[in-house]
């Protein structure tokens, strides 16, 4: 049984969600701020955190960064903000998904289930015999090296370039389909693990951030090319390694 921690200062929301999640077989816990969140995490191992951005004291973005600095605990961000930059910032800080307020509790349950499945699959593949050694998770392209287990890049100059969860999934999606035009909907579905029905600009922002990590000139990109009216094309000429295992 998965333990879910709901962090929100709105008592009506935490009461509703904890009761609703319990109906779907989860054990739900509630916290109203960063202090009570830390206390809950110290008292009980959690499998996923549903985290509101707007919290008293320490905000949700900062708490997501804090969580990700010490663990790979899955995080779903809740936000009442409509600005795509806020959502992308949450993903950059390590969140696995986000939902805008107001939301349907059943949809949140579906996203929790998806994120937990993805986390379980990643953990199983990282530790399973089929994966072999850490070297098996290394993919090379155009002088760059992606370490799938550590989730970072090594530049052609030997510099370590850390990736957020969202950047890693986007790059993996591109590496599995080099020199193919991928539409925004497809990228959002595969890179985020769900189809987004809002904030279409967010995938463009993630592409921009990934280009920056790859030192790809945004004015004349050579690696991630924009195909007008269609989407993006990952223009790598050589992709070597077990790309099918990248998730």
UniProtKB/TrEMBL annotation:
The keyword Ribosomal protein does not apply. Gene3D superfamilies: 3.40.50.2300, 6.10.250.690, Winged helix-like DNA-binding domain superfamily/Winged helix DNA-binding domain. InterPro entries: CheY-like_superfamily, OmpR/PhoB-type_DNA-bd, Sig_transdc_resp-reg_C-effctor, Sig_transdc_resp-reg_receiver, WalR-like, WH-like_DNA-bd_sf. Keywords: Cytoplasm, DNA-binding, Phosphoprotein, Transcription, Transcription regulation, Two-component regulatory system. Residues 136-236 bind DNA. GO terms for molecular function: phosphorelay response regulator activity; transcription cis-regulatory region binding. Its main location: cytoplasm. It is found in: Cytoplasm. GO terms for biological process: regulation of DNA-templated transcription. Residues 3-116 form the Response regulatory domain. The modification 4-aspartylphosphate is found at residue 52. Residues 136-236 form the OmpR/PhoB-type domain. GO terms for cellular component: cytosol; protein-DNA complex. PANTHER family: DNA-BINDING DUAL TRANSCRIPTIONAL REGULATOR OMPR, REGULATOR OF RPOS. This is Two-component system, OmpR family, response regulator. The lineage of its organism: Bacteria, Pseudomonadati, Pseudomonadota, Betaproteobacteria, Burkholderiales.
């Amino acid at each position: 049984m998965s333990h879910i921690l709901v962090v929100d200062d709105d008592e009506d929301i935490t009461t509703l969600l904890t009761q609703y999640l319990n109906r779907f077989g989860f054990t739900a816990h509630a916290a109203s701020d960063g202090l009570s969140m830390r206390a809950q995490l110290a008292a009980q191992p959690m499998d996923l955190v549903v985290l509101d951005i707007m919290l008293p004291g320490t905000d949700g973005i900062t708490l997501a960064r804090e969580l990700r600095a010490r663990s790979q605990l899955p995080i779903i961000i809740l936000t009442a903000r409509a600005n795509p930059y806020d959502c992308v910032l949450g993903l950059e800080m390590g969140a696995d998904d986000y939902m805008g307020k107001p939301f349907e509790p059943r949809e949140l349950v579906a996203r929790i289930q998806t994120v937990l499945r993805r986390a379980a699959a990643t953990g199983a593949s990282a530790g399973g015999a089929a994966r072999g050694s850490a070297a098996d998770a290394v993919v090379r392209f155009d002088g760059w090296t992606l370490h799938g287990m550590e989730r970072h890049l090594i530049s052609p100059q030997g510099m370590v370039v850390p990736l957020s969860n969202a950047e890693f999934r986007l790059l993996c999606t591109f590496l599995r389909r080099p020199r193919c035009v991928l539409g925004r909907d497809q990228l959002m579905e595969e890179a985020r693990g769900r189809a987004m029905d809002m904030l279409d600009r967010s995938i463009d922002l993630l592409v921009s951030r990934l280009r920056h990590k790859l030192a790809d000139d945004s004015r004349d990109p050579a690696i991630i090319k924009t195909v007008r009216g269609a989407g993006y094309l990952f223009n790598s000429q050589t992709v070597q390694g077990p790309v099918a295992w990248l998730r």
